[in-house]
Amino acid sequence: MPKRALAQKRPFLLLSVAAALAFYYLRASDVPELWLIPLKGSAVGLLAVYAYMRHSSPDAHLLAWAMAAAALGDMGIMFDRTIGALLFFAFHVLALGVFLRNRRPALTKTQSWVVGLTLILTPAIAYFFPYDRTMALPTAFYALALGAMASGAWASSFPRYRVGAGAMLFLLSDMLLFAEMGPLSGSDVPQYLVWPIYYLGQFLICIGVITTLRKRDPELRVVQGGRETAH
């Protein structure tokens, strides 16, 4: 595989990490929030570009669309929580599609329990978090998609210590957001922990899926002079 091709793709990961760190630290500064919105979106948005450029399979492109939806959600939630939730719901559906297309042939009993409990307990726990009970059902409905995504990742043939763990970190970050509507209302814990946990989860999901796809099919799309060539 040409080193030049690798050099052209890896900077997207480096830029993504840089954007994530910059957003985390600059949001506590005097930088206007309006300037932080595109910076926040670019962190996962660059993961979407990486996924799309790194492999030309339908699974990689579906993951790229999922990451793009999440990036829009990262920006949308700074305007309106409902808009952000709808965009992240789209992420969960698209990511679940990737995981279902790559199901593990068989699960052990323990793995089946993890998958089942994650799917059931995620919306059940989320339902009881909001103090405003009018938000209980919408939160549980969103959490059902969240739990399905995490369960799908755990049951997929992708590495559990990357993709499965990444999905569980995403789940944890959202649980902290749900808790912010209830038990952690007024706490600084979500403010400090949600973003790094969420971003690390997305990063692990992205590199885990793409690395696995490249091992299965080492095709690499390289764009040179407006033409696409496969290596």
Automatic annotation (TrEMBL):
<feature type="transmembrane region" description="Helical">
    <location>
        <begin position="34"/>
        <end position="53"/>
    </location>
</feature>
<feature type="transmembrane region" description="Helical">
    <location>
        <begin position="163"/>
        <end position="181"/>
    </location>
</feature>
<feature type="transmembrane region" description="Helical">
    <location>
        <begin position="12"/>
        <end position="28"/>
    </location>
</feature>
<feature type="transmembrane region" description="Helical">
    <location>
        <begin position="60"/>
        <end position="77"/>
    </location>
</feature>
<feature type="transmembrane region" description="Helical">
    <location>
        <begin position="83"/>
        <end position="100"/>
    </location>
</feature>
<keyword id="KW-1133">Transmembrane helix</keyword>
<dbReference type="InterPro" id="IPR012506">
    <property type="entry name" value="TMEM86B-like"/>
</dbReference>
<keyword id="KW-0472">Membrane</keyword>
<feature type="transmembrane region" description="Helical">
    <location>
        <begin position="112"/>
        <end position="129"/>
    </location>
</feature>
<feature type="transmembrane region" description="Helical">
    <location>
        <begin position="193"/>
        <end position="213"/>
    </location>
</feature>
<dbReference type="Pfam" id="PF07947">
    <property type="entry name" value="YhhN"/>
</dbReference>
<protein>
    <submittedName>
        <fullName>Lysoplasmalogenase</fullName>
    </submittedName>
</protein>
<dbReference type="GO" id="GO:0016020">
    <property type="term" value="C:membrane"/>
</dbReference>
<comment type="similarity">
    <text>Belongs to the TMEM86 family.</text>
</comment>
<feature type="transmembrane region" description="Helical">
    <location>
        <begin position="135"/>
        <end position="156"/>
    </location>
</feature>
<keyword id="KW-0812">Transmembrane</keyword>
